[in-house]
Amino acid sequence: MHEPLSRLRRSVLYVPASNERALRKSASLACDAVIYDLEDAVGPEEKEPARERLRSFLSGSDRPDCEVIVRINSFSSEWGTEDFLAARACRPDAILLPKVDGPRDILDADAALDETDAGASLRLWAMIETPRAVLNIGALAELGRDPAARLSCVVAGTNDLVKETRVSTDGGRNLLLPWLMQIVLAARAGNLTALDGVSNNFRDLEAFGRECEEARAMGFDGKTLIHPGQIAPANKAFSPTADEVAEAEMIVAEFAKPENRHRGVVSVDGRMIERLHLEQAEALLKKHEHIRERGE
Ligand code: COA
Ligand code: MG
Fold it and tell me: Mean pLDDT lowest for which of 47-56, 129-138, 210-219, 286-295?
């Protein structure tokens, strides 16, 4: 089953399942999706109560209306299986698998879901945060073309990538960019959503805004977030600007002219515009409409 490509995933907030206040807060936030975390945001002693808290929260009336994802510990850890069963019981839109190394990890999770009679609408998301995942990203993303594999989104895990590769972040994200670009390229090849990693410095929203702009320019669909303050800048950065909307409307209007209706290419102000630009313009306007429908 393919998801609507128009699904907005501009701002995707991690919420530690162990934090009752954050859980309650998550119901009222304007992010496009929430990832309830049972993995690294939850200490070893908190795993069991966090599962219980999350199950009870998501079965209550405070469950948010947005897309809901649960991140579990990897199956190779002592918590993986219990997390998986708890996540399944939470009826999320997707389960996010951490520390994925290659396609086998996705296929194993998929088989485990089939064993629990999970419906086809329950999707898998994958953290790309190990060197092997980056090296295997092409094969991983190919699974996006196989509906049975359930994979619908890849999420850059930049903190783990920095840790595993020992790359320096003294110069900002520069040295990470080649790997991040590979993730975006593979996501496009596999028809997947691509989400950028988090910005740890959640008080500096100006720097955060710049990082969102950079991520958007790289082709990411959205950014993963750690703090509610990051939601508005991410939504803004990953929404079409007024200029982009005007440009898209112009392109649609050009091709709608009777004399251009059957032409493959037109010329406007010394610029060539092809039908592929029309497709891009239509997709942008659809996204814009979707955002407007949400009252933004
Ligand atoms: N989700 C929901 N609510 C959050 C939140 C989050 N990720 N982060 C903070 N909040 C809430 C706080 O609970 C607080 O709520 P209140 O108004 O009811 O008191 C409010 O937002 C303001 O929080 P603030 O005091 O600015 O931050 P903090 O010091 O409480 O928390 C962090 C800072 C980094 C510990 C916290 O943002 C966090 O845990 N983020 C997620 C970490 C995570 O999931 N990491 C794993 C993936 S990388
Ligand atoms: Mg990680």
Answer: 286-295
- In angstroms, rounded to a whole number, what is the distance separating the alpha carbons of residues 36 and 130? 21
The closest ligand to the CA of 160 turns out to be 2
Task: Establish whether residue 198 lines the binding site of ligand 1, counting it when its CB lies within 6 angstroms of any ligand atom.
Answer: yes
Segment 187-221, tens digit of pLDDT: 999 999 999 999 999 999 999 999 999 999 999 99
Strands (E), the chain: 11-16, 33-37, 67-71, 94-97, 123-128, 151-156, 193-196, 222-225, 265-268, 271-274
Q: Which fold has domain 11-237?
A: TIM Barrel (3.20.20)
Q: For residue 250, which amino acid is it?
A: M
In the numeric block, which tokens belong to residue 184?
């975006």
Cα angle 42, 47, 48 (rounded to 5 degrees) comes to 155
Domain residue limits, the chain: 11-237, 242-293
